[in-house]
Design goal:
It is a single chain. With 199 residues, the chain is α/β, with parallel strands linked by helices. It has six helices and nine strands; from the N terminus they run αβββααβαβαββββα. It has helices at residues 2-30, 70-84, 87-91, 107-117, 128-138, 182-192; strands at residues 39-42, 45-48, 57-63, 93-99, 122-124, 142-146, 154-158, 161-165, 171-176. A five-stranded mixed β-sheet has the order 5-4-3-8-9, with helices on both faces. The longest helix has 29 residues, at 2-30. The relative contact order is 0.17.
Length: 199
């Protein structure tokens, strides 16, 4: 009888220990790393969105790679604007696409998607926490909508603006979604003048 109790006790301790280890592993899979707001991923590298050593004005568009119409149109407009501005202005501008769908858009997928529109556009992916924090900071509205009977499973409904940021992340201004690059081209010189070292 004494040995039976010992065996039961050992079995109980072993079971609880195994359960704890498995629960810890499951938790580690679901808990995202707590990265700073500004350290995102682009392709195979980490990128500092607010790098103080990079004086370029950030022109940022928030969207996602499986967006059916608004994002491709906006990035095509961004690309057309980049092709129309003088080289000196282009040197002082950092065009960026940040995904609102980090669940599906890996850093490599997002970077490749952005480069498809223009080689100068950096495609970036953050964690869900970073994505929400950036969206809250700049007033980006987005909402996941489930799609029944669709292979996509869900869509991300979002507003559509080009956000111009100082190197430290401060918002200079935002320009609404456009169907042609002319208005974007016209505001870029004024945005660049916001940074003395870029003029």
């Amino acid at each position: 009888m004494k040995y039976q109790w010992m065996i039961l006790a050992i079995a109980l301790i072993t079971g609880l220990t195994t359960s704890y280890i498995l629960d810890s592993r499951d938790a580690s899979r679901t808990v995202e790393p707590d990265y700073p707001l500004n350290i995102l991923e682009s392709g195979n590298e980490a990128v500092d969105l607010y790098n103080p050593k990079d004086p370029r004005i950030r022109m940022v568009y928030f969207g996602y790679t499986q967006c059916p119409d608004v994002c491709p149109t906006s990035l095509a407009v961004m690309s057309a604007a980049l092709k129309q501005i003088p080289t000196e202005q282009l040197k002082n501008l950092w065009p960026i696409f940040i995904t609102l769908d980090p669940e599906r858009d890996t850093a490599i997928k997002t970077a490749n998607y952005a480069k498809h529109f223009h080689s100068a556009i950096s495609g970036m992916t953050g964690t869900h926490k970073q994505t929400k924090a950036l969206a809250d900071k700049y007033g980006v509205l987005y909402l996941r909508t489930d799609l029944k009977d669709s292979a996509l499973e869900y869509a991300i409904d979002h507003n559509s603006y080009f956000y111009f940021l100082l190197p430290n992340g401060e918002l200079i201004d935002k320009v609404p979604h456009l169907l042609n690059p002319a208005p974007l081209v016209s505001v870029i010189p004024d945005m660049i003048k916001s940074v003395p070292s870029a003029t």
